[in-house]
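Design review, sub-item: ligand-bound model
Attendees: FS, YL, KQ
YL presented the inputs for the S-adenosyl-L-homocysteine complex:
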Amino acid sequence: MDDRADARDRLVDRLQRSGPIRSSRVADAVRTVPRHVFVPEDERDRAYEDAPLPIGHEQEITAPHLVGRMADLLDLEPGTSVLEIGAGSGYHAAVVAELVGADHVVTVERVPDLARLARRNLDRAGYDDVALLVGDGSRGLPGGAPYDRINVTCAAPEIPEPLLDQLANGGRMTVPLGDAPRGSHTLYLVEKGDDGVDRTSHGGVRFVPLVGAHGFSTAD
Ligand code: SAH
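KQ shared the predicted structure:
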């Protein structure tokens, strides 16, 4: 086995033992996606640390334990449609693609340079079928709605209304929420049902901000 696959295995074992990854399907997905392909060259040695890493434009690739925890909360099955807000490096979308099938994932990125980076990384790692668009994901993507799942990978001041509208009945959304763009946030699971919308808190987290019409007006 190559060193990187070995390091990835050890990371997943730790994340299963310490709690953030519960399902074996999610563990397998994190074991499969080569995170080193998604991190910048000069950070590659750190690809299998459980840490966020800089990807440019003051943005970060999400830490593996959060990618695992969010995938668990979303309860992803093959064929489930997923809208992701914040492609960043493309890593999180690749893990989700492992679980639902690449052609069921669409991700939106606000920064054109990062969208290009995510596209290149996804293609290199074999996830060409993940759809990627540049735009303000706080408005969602009405053309493909409703979505079974929505994964917001940046922190919002409140649940963006268009995303709630575009979530299917019976659907789930993971979204970090907080008062300030930079600082501490709380991860929420949002479930939409016949009787309305339920949200449960899943602990303190730190994300980069969702900047847009239904997000923060500035990044600081
Ligand atoms: N899922 C990514 C995490 C990237 S960090 C990964 O695994 O690498 C969050 C990303 O959300 C950043 O790239 C940021 O530019 C993007 N973002 C912030 N506001 C956005 C918006 N309104 N629409 C789309 N993307 C947004």
